[in-house]
Amino acid sequence: MTTAQIRNAMTIDVEDYFQVSAFAPHILREHWDSLPCRVERNIDIALALLNEGNAHATFFTLGWIAERYPAVVRRIVDNGHEIASHGYGHHRVSDQNRNDFGKDITHAKKLLEDISGRSVIGYRAPSFSIGADNLWAHDVLLEAGYQYSSSIYPIRHDHYGMPEAPRFAHYPRGQSGVLELPPTTVALLGHNLPAAGGGYFRLLPYQASRWLIRRVNRQDGKPCIFYFHPWELDPDQPRQQGISSKTQFRHYVNLTRMESRIQALLRDFHWDRMDRVFMKVET
User: Fold this and answer.
1) Secondary structure (3-state) at 225
2) Are strands 7-14 and 225-228 parallel, antiparallel or unpaired?
3) The whole model's pTM is what?
4) How many CB atoms lie within 10 A of CB 255?
5) Which residues contact 236 (CB under 8 A, 6 or more apart)?
6) What are the φ/ψ torsions at residue 42 (nearest 5 degrees)?
7) Distance CA 230, CA 117 (A)
8) Whole-angstrom Cα distance, residue 62 to residue 156?
């Protein structure tokens, strides 16, 4: 298949700047409600970009955000996009036991469904925090009524990753279980290179990301899964003090270029929702 024929999956992790895992040691959860939330502004920008690019996406949304900004959820579905779950409070799965994880994803699913009026079948773990040590999470997702997950990133990273995992859609717990849809990687020189967005997309020249996505479409003949966060469209967000230079660089690098790069990505490739690309859902 040619690049033009392949529908790739665009995904957005709906969380605000103060909820990222790298800031967790510096911003206490009990302080979240006292911080200026910019998610409404940033979601409006994301929706406008998608509309301009004639594209649809899956919004993996925190229950915490949906509970406080239900109009955001309704705007997403009213624009024809898929609502999926990012859990309730951005707790990494690797920091939870089976019982707590089950409560978190069940609560988030019900909350999102009640607000959106849509079934929620997809889940993405905060910080891609499902890996070799907690594959039981897929069993809990199935019990809670989820059909797919996009939570295992088959790369080597200092905070997450399962480099030995399959690069494309698979069933970690057997075909009667939840379908895992990993963020896109490119196999090169014995390693999986990240090609799915995030900080890598902002750091590397746009041409590099375009080459990686085209390689997967053309060489593997597979759709890509790309992701970004609303806060990445917000170069004027409040700056967090007291963080390491490494964390500062990762979070803030090239925020001013993000909007134009997303516009280019939407022009260069065909994008749709996860459920329509992989689950053959008709909407």
Assistant:
1) strand
2) parallel
3) 0.96
4) 16
5) none
6) -70, -35
7) 23
8) 25
* pLDDT string in tens for the chain (283-residue length): 556 679 999 999 999 999 999 999 999 999 999 999 999 999 999 999 999 999 999 999 999 999 999 999 999 999 999 999 999 999 999 999 999 999 999 999 999 999 999 999 999 999 999 999 999 999 999 999 999 999 999 988 666 778 899 999 999 999 999 999 999 999 988 889 999 998 889 999 999 999 999 999 999 999 999 999 999 999 999 999 999 999 999 999 999 999 999 999 999 999 999 999 999 766 6
What is the SS3 assignment for 8?
A: strand
Helices (H) and strands (E) in the chain, counts: 10, 10
Helix axes 258-268, 206-215, angle to 10 degrees: 30
DSSP state of 277: H
Q: Output the furthest CA–CA distance in the chain (Å, rounded).
A: 50
The per-residue b/e assignment along 41-78, b for 16 or more CB within 10 angstroms, e otherwise, is ebbeebbebbeebebbbbbbbbbbbbbebeebbeebbe
Structure tokens of 235? 């170069």
Which residues are CB-contacts of 31 (< 8 A; sequence separation ≥ 6)?
A: none
What is the chain's length? 283
